[in-house]
Amino acid sequence: MTVSLRGGMESREGCHVFHFTGQLDAYSEKQFLDFVREGLEGESSPVIVDLSKIDFIDSSGLGSLVQVARQCSEAGVRFLVVGNARVVQTVKLVRLESFLHLKDDLASALQDLAA
Description:
CATH superfamily: STAS domain
Shape: globular
Number of domains: 1
Distance between the termini: 33 Å
Structural class: alpha/beta
Strand order of the largest sheet: 1-2-3-4-5
Order of helices and strands: EEHEHEHEH
Largest sheet: 5 strands, mixed
CATH class: Alpha Beta
């Protein structure tokens, strides 16, 4: 990860949860994509990308989320994004909340996957 983006992954309740802090922007999108794609390689479990601790997201960050969502869709893997107020506002501005299956918090995302 770059200095502006830090992340990790854990298996939780039958899914992969990727969590990030910092900024998801043009400077960090490649590292974000590489990290997530490496974590998903050969996996078929649902995926949650937790951006609740992201300080900033720009169009490049949104583009990288769309790429991961498409990759998951093509592989038949469920995909959800958790965002804070800043992330939610940015995602809704470009009307991607349905495509990214945007959730308010991790508990809601895990509950949605369990249903």
